[in-house]
Protein 1
Amino acid sequence: MTLLPRRGLKASLISLVMVATACSSGGGQSAAPLPGCNSGTTQVLFWTSHTPPDTDSMKHTVDAFNKQSTTACVKMVAVPGSETDIAKLTTAVRGGTGPDVYELDRFTVAERAAAGVLTDLTPFGAANESANYLDFAWQEALFKGKPYALPFDTDARALFYNKDLMQAAGVDPNALDISKGAPTIDTVRTIANKLNKKDSSGKYTTVGFVPAISQGWHYTWGFAYGGSFFNASSCKVTPDDPKIVQAFKDMFWDWSSSLGVDQLQTFISTYAPTTPPLPTEQDAFLTGHIGMVITGPWVLSWFPQYQPNLHYGITYIPVPHQGDQSATWAGGWSVVIPKGAKNAKGGYEFMKYFAGEPGQRVYTKETQHMPTWKTLLTDSTLYQGDLKIFVQLLPTAHSRPALPVGSLYWDQLSTAQDAAIRHSKDPAAALKDAATATNDKLQQYCPLAS
Amino acid sequence: MIAAPRLGRFRLSPEDRRNLRTALPFIAPWIIGFLAFTVYPIVYSLYLSFTHYTGFGDATAAGFDNYQHMVKDPLFWQSLSNTLYYAALAVPIGLVVAIALALMMNQNVREVAIYRAAFYLPSIIPLFALTFIFIVLLNPGFGLVDFLLERVGLPAVNWLGDARWTRISVVLLAQLGAGGPALIFLAALRAVPTELYESALLDGAGPLRRFYKITLPLITPVILFDLIYGTILGIQIFTPAYVLTGGTSGGGAYTAGPENSLLFFVYYLYKNAFQYSDMGYASALAWILFVISVLLALAIMRWSRYWVHYEAS
C-alpha cells in the first residue's frame, strides 16, 4: 500500500484550499439592502443593455420602486447586449449568475422562450395583465400562448424633414405638411434630388433622402408597399412576397442607382456609418447632412439637447401611389425573468411596477418613447408637441411577426437589403435566399400554436 | 562514448516515482483546471456538434444534421472564404512586417531602446480600443489615411464601407500588433553568431547578401513558428470584425460588414451560438475550424522541410 507522502499531503491540501477559494469568490449576493431601499427587502438584480438617456429615466423608476417596496430592492446594472445579441445573458444564466429581471427586445421574446432562456410567467398571474396592454404588444410577449414577458415601451416610424435645408434649396416645406396626408415616394424623390450637394471632389456632402438610413428598414418599406412577411397558415416566412421585392427594387436598388452606388456608400460611411454608428450629436439628420429621414419618436428628445435651432417637420411614411394608406410599424422592449433567477418573485413584483402604469408613465414623459399601457395612451398630459403624431399612428401600426427565429430573420432581411443597396445581388434572388435560410430553421418549431 | 538515452521505454526509478508523487499535488490545480476548463469543453463540444441544442434544456440527438447543414449553408462558405482570404494576406504580410520591425529594433544605435519601445507599444494597446482609433483614421470624409492618399494623387478608398476593402482594412489593423512577433524575431536575430557576419564581411558580402545568406536561413525555425502560430491565430480572427460591424451596439448594421465581407468564421460561430441560440451548429463549426487548423499546421510543417535550417543538423 502506498500512502501519500506527508509533503504531498500538505501540498494537495494547499492546492484544494486554493481551488476552493478561487471557485468560491465572487459568488453570492449581499443581503444588506442597498441605499434607498427599505430594510427587510430582498435584492432583485435587473439588467438592461440600454444606455443614457434611457437608463437615466429607468433609474428614476427603480429608485421610486425601491422607496415604496417593502419586499424587494432593485439593483439596476447596464450590461453589453443589443436587440438580437444576448451573449452576456445566456452565458450568465448558464453559469448560474444571471439576473432576476432582464430587458429584452419584445420581438425576440418568442425566440428566447423557444430556446428556453425565459421563465413562463403564468404562475405569477401574468395572463391577468393582458387587458392592460396594447394587443400587438401583448401578442409579442407570448410563446405558444403563454406569457413570457411584460411589454414595456413602444414606438412608431415617420418621415422627418429638415425645413431649413428645403428652404435653402428653394423647396416649399409645406409640400410635406402632415395635413396634406402621406406624400408619395415620387414627391419625396423630387424634393430629395433638389437637396443633394457635392463638394469639389465630387463627394456628396448633403443627400436629400436615403431610404435605408436610420429606420428605413426592410420591414418599413415592405409594410409601406403592403407586403406580408409571414404566412401563419403555412408556417413560413414570405420575404419573397412580390410587394416586398418591389419595395426592395424601388427603395434600395433603384435609389442607389440614381445616387451612384459607390458614391452613396462613401456618403454613408462618412456621415451615417453603421459600423459602428456615430454618437448621437453627430447624427446625419441633426447635422444637416441628410434632408429627410425615416426615424422614430425618440429623436424628439435629441433636438432640444443637440440642435435646438433646427426647423424640422414630421409626416407619414411615403406611399407608393397617391391615395395609398400610409403604413408604419411599432417595436419596443419588454421585461422578462430569465431561467434560474434567484428572486423571481421579487423580480415579478418589480416588473409589474416597471412595465406597469407608474414605470411607463415616467419613461414616456422623460424619453419620448410611447407606452404600451393602454390607459396612458389617452392621458393627453403625457404627450407634448410632436409626440402626439406618433400616438395617433399607433392604432394602425404593423408589428413584426413574433417568430422563434426572429433575429435570424432580421439578419437575413438585412443581408438582402444590403445586397440590394450595393447591387451585389438582385432583390428577388436575395429575398428568396433569405426565405430559404429562415424557413430552414423555422420548420423545427412549426406549427406555431398561439 | 556516451550512451544515447533509451527513448523506447519510459522507466521510472523509485526516486523518480517519489518525486512524481510529490510533484503531482503541486501541479494539481493546473491539472484540474486543464481538465475542467479545457479538456471537458472540447469533448463536450464534440458531443454537442451531433445535437440540436439551444444552450438550455436538453440537447436532442441530431446525427450529422449540423454537418450536413453546413454544406448547403451559403454563410458557412462565405465565412470560410472570408477567413482564408484574410489569413492568406495577414499571415505573410505580418511576417514581413515583424521581421522588418525586428531588423530595425536590432540596429546598433544609441537610442535603440526608445525605438524598441515605440515599435512594440501598439501591440499592447487592447485590440478593442485600437479598432476604434482605426475607424476614425479610415473615415473616407475626414480620416487621415484617405487624406494622405489624396495628397499623393491616389483615389480615396471607402475602407470600411466597400466590401472589396473591408478585409484589407483588417489586415492593415493586424499589423499594429506586429510588435509581439517582432520581439521573438529580435531574439532570433541576436542569436545569430556574429563571427558569421564578420567572415562574410571579410569576403566582401554586402548587407543584402548577408541578410539573405546568413540572417534569413538562421532564423527560419522562428519563421516556421511564426507561420504556424500566425495562421492559427489568423483563422480565429474575431475582435476587429465584431467591433467594426457595430457588435453589441444597438442600431448596428446587422450584417457583418458590407455584403457580410467581415463575417469571419469565428464571428459566424458566435452569431450562431449567442444570437440564434444554436449551440449544436456552433459546436460543429468549431470542430471544422479545429480540423482546418490542424490540416494547415501539418501542411506548413511538411512544407517547412524544404526551407527550414536547423543549426544542429
Note: Residues 14-48 of chain B form the longest helix (35 residues).
Protein 2
Amino acid sequence: MTKKLKIVVLAKQVPDTRNVGKNAMKEDGTVNRAALPAIFNPEDMNALEQALRLKDRHPGSVVLLLTMGPARAAEIIREGYYRGADGGVLLTDRKFAGADTLATSYALAMALKKMQPDIIIAGRQAIDGDTAQVGPQVAEKLNLPQVTYAEEIVGFEKNKLVVKRRLERGVESVRTPLPAVNTVHATAPECRPRNAKQLMRFKHARTLTEEQDNEHNSYLPVISPESLRIPEWGVADVGGEESHYGLSGSPTKVKKIENIVFQAKESKRLTSSFEEIDMLMTELISSHTIG
Amino acid sequence: MDNIIIYIETEGGKISDVSLELLTKGRTLAGELSCKLEALIIGSSVEQHTQELFNYGAETIYLAQDKRLEHYLTLPYSAITIDLFKKERPQIALFGATSVGRDLAPRVSSALVSGLTADCTSLEIGNHKEAKSGKEYQNLLYQIRPAFGGNIIATIINPDCRPQMATVREGVMKKEPLATPVKGVVKVIETKDIIKTEDFVVEIIERHIEERKIDIKGSPIIIAGGFGVGSKENFNLLYELASVLGAEVGASRAAVDAGFAEGARQIGQTGITVRPKLYIAAGISGQIQHTAGMDQSAMIISINSDPNAPIHQIADYAIIGDMNEIIPRMIKSYKLNSK
C-alpha cells in the first residue's frame, strides 16, 4: 500500500526517576531532583520507533514530534530528528504551567487540531507520573478512537490499522480506523539509535528562544538557518479557552508531598527468624519500597 | 446522586479481585460519607454476578448487558459509563488500575472534565482549606499515591469537580465480603439508547494468552538468584516471591550457566546492568562480575548462609541463613502486612 501518512508522536521530557541511585540522594535522604538528568520519556521512545517503522513501510510519510514543556524540551525535537523524524513542535507557554493530565491533554489536543495527523502515537505513560492518562484524554478531546498498551503497530488491513496490544494476561489484536490515538507499551521494540548523518544535519536545529539565548553567548556559533527552526507554539498559536490551560484547567490539586527518606546506613545483619524478617518486610512496606 | 460508584471488571467470567477490593474499600468510604455504595457492571452476560456484588456491599447495581459488549471496547464502555455518571452524579468513582481501568477512566474523566488520580495506594476522607482563597472543603477524597518513580508520596484532591476519580492496583486494598449480604437493587441500563453503531469502529480481531517477555531492566524490584539457590526447582521460590511483590527474577552468570534460569535474566558484567529500587540477592556470593551489574540499586538485601559472602558487604540488609526458609517467611510476612 502506498499510503502517505502524517504521524505525530507525543513525547515528554522527564527527570530520569528510574535510576535514582545512592548518589542522587540528598543528605536528608530525599531525592535530589536537580541531580537527575532530563531524558526522553522511555515509552515515548518506543512510540517513536513504531512511528518510524510505519514511515519505513510507507515512503513519503512524515513523522513529527509534539512535546510540551519549558524551552529546554526542544531537546526532544532534536532527539527525534537524530533518530529519523522529520520535525516537530514545542508547545511552550507560561500559561501551560501547573497543568495536570487533563489540562495537558487539552493543550496537546488543541495543537493536534492544528497539525491534523492521520495517526497519533504516544508512550503509554511517563516515568515521572506513571498515570497513563494523557493518551486516552487526548483521544477523547479529539473524539477519536484510542488503542492503548500497543506492543506493535502491525500495518493496514481493509484500510484500517491493525494494532497488537499487550494486556495483563495476554495479547489482543484490534483493527482501528484512522485517525486514532495509539499508546505504546514498554514491551514494544526499543528505538533505533541516532543516525550520524541526521545528527550532523540537525544538531543546530533551534527554537527562536534558543537562538535569542545564543546571541548572548557569543562564543557559540549562530548558524542555524531558518529551515532548522523548531517552531514554538503557545496559547495564542493553538487557540482554545484560556481557563482550560495550566493550573486553572486542572481539576486535581496536590495537597501534600511527602519525601521518601532513604537511610544511608551500614549493612544491617539479620538472622533467618520470622520475627526479624517480619520487621524488615514491615519496614519495606511502610517506606513504600514494596507494595 | 452523591454516591460512590465502583466500576466492576470481569475477566474470564469472573469478577476481578481488584473490583471486589474496591467494593470493600468503598464500604468504608461510603460509611464515613453516609452515602450509598453502588456498582457499575458492563458485559454480555453479567447478570450472574449480582449476588456476589451484594455480598460485597453494593446497594445499587447498574447493569449494562448487551451481546456486543462481551469484551471490553473503549468507545461503547466509556459511552455507558459517561452517560451513567452524568445522570447519577456520583461524588466518587473508583476503577481498577488494570489495562481496562487505565484505558476507560481517563476517557471518562476527560469527557466529564473531572480529575483522575492513577494508581492510588491509599484512599481517605478528609477536609481541605484552600490556602489562597481560604475556601473550606469538607469530606474530600484524599487520593494518595507514590509519584516521581516512587520517591515521593503525593496526596491529590479534586476540590471542585465531580466525580472524584481514582484507579487502584490489584492487591493494594484488602478484599472482604460482608457477613450478611446487602439487599440491594439492580437497575438495568438500556444500552441501545446509549451506544451507537460508530462506537464499534474498533474491532477485536484476536485475543489470546501469551506469556510476557522478560523485562528485568524495567522492573523496580528484582529478586536474583545465584548458584547457591541449588536447582532450577528452587528458583520457583524466587518466582513466587517475585509474583507476590510484582518483581522480576534475575540470575547470576553461575546460575544461568548451571541451567537454573534463562540467559535473558542474567545480571552482571556480561549480562544486564540494573538499578532497581530494591534488589534481593539470594544464594549469590557477590563476585565483582555480578555486583558490577547491580551495585547501584537503591536498596540491596542479601540472603546467603555464608556470613563471609562478599554480597553481604554491599547489602543494606544482610540476612544470614537458608533462602529455602527465608523466602517463604518473606512471602508470609508480606501477605500479613501489606493490606
Note: Chain A touches chain B through 83 residues (CB under 8 Å).
